[in-house]
């Protein structure tokens, strides 16, 4: 291959990637959202397509990004819409990568009309839990309702007094039931709203591969190397 050329090791594979941050409406002009830029998910979709995969990118809100060439893009807003799209798109996929930042909670009510201020204090915003899309994909597959070879999660973690970022990642991989989990250390200018990422790729088989600080395309290549290796039985 030419120097710098990507392998075509995902030729004939179908992959689904989610990206961006969901927005959970409060009223027609306001929402509960998060800082996800969508860049990591877009990089994953772009690199997979460059390596020959048939790619569907299910994207929630992102900063202004160009659609990756040769990728089918499905746009969603809320976690519930993301859930519906992911369950529909993932059947028969060789790999499903949940890089989206899904809101864990949404406002219980969202009003049809804009909430107006008045002289009294505002009501508190009551929240309810959103579906866990990755957990539902794992469950649907276990129930035989979904055919998907590899399910991949992402986790942005901060360390604390008694638990490291890596420990949080190990626990999350075990809890989620997916095959691979990308763990990113957040804070100190990492992960959100920046071009670069750093972390580990944890496998359910116990493998723990450090991912060097570098461009999101590097993380994407590291992940597709692992996916391709597992799909090809290496
Ligand atoms: N995820 C999801 N649906 C949700 C929340 C998260 O599919 N409602 C997915 C994310 O896309 C990611 C993985 O689950 O791939 C881990 O997300 P994360 O927010 O780190 O995990 P949670 O289980 O929500 O735990 P917590 O936020 O409490 O750390
Ligand atoms: Ca969460």
From TrEMBL:
CTP binds at residues 104, 114, 131-134, 154, 172, 176. The lineage of its organism: Bacteria, Bacillati, Actinomycetota, Actinomycetes, Pseudonocardiales. In the C-terminal section; belongs to the PPC synthetase family. The gene is coaBC. This is Coenzyme A biosynthesis bifunctional protein CoaBC. GO terms for molecular function: FMN binding; metal ion binding; phosphopantothenate--cysteine ligase activity; phosphopantothenoylcysteine decarboxylase activity. Pathway: Cofactor biosynthesis; coenzyme A biosynthesis; CoA from (R)-pantothenate: step 3/5; Cofactor biosynthesis; coenzyme A biosynthesis; CoA from (R)-pantothenate: step 2/5. Binds 1 FMN per subunit. One of its GO terms (biological process) is coenzyme A biosynthetic process. Its EC number is 4.1.1.36, 6.3.2.5. Keywords: Decarboxylase, Flavoprotein, FMN, Ligase, Lyase, Magnesium, Metal-binding, Multifunctional enzyme. One of its GO terms (cellular component) is phosphopantothenoylcysteine decarboxylase complex. Catalyzes two sequential steps in the biosynthesis of coenzyme A. In the first step cysteine is conjugated to 4'-phosphopantothenate to form 4-phosphopantothenoylcysteine. In the second step the latter compound is decarboxylated to form 4'-phosphopantotheine. Catalyzes two steps in the biosynthesis of coenzyme A. In the first step cysteine is conjugated to 4'-phosphopantothenate to form 4-phosphopantothenoylcysteine, in the latter compound is decarboxylated to form 4'-phosphopantotheine. The chain holds residues 183 to 416 of 416 of the full protein. It catalyses: (R)-4'-phosphopantothenate + L-cysteine + CTP = N-[(R)-4-phosphopantothenoyl]-L-cysteine + CMP + diphosphate + H(+); N-[(R)-4-phosphopantothenoyl]-L-cysteine + H(+) = (R)-4'-phosphopantetheine + CO2. Its cofactor is Mg(2+); FMN. Residues 10-228 form the DNA/pantothenate metabolism flavoprotein C-terminal domain. The keyword Protease does not apply. Residues 15-234 are annotated as: Phosphopantothenate--cysteine ligase.
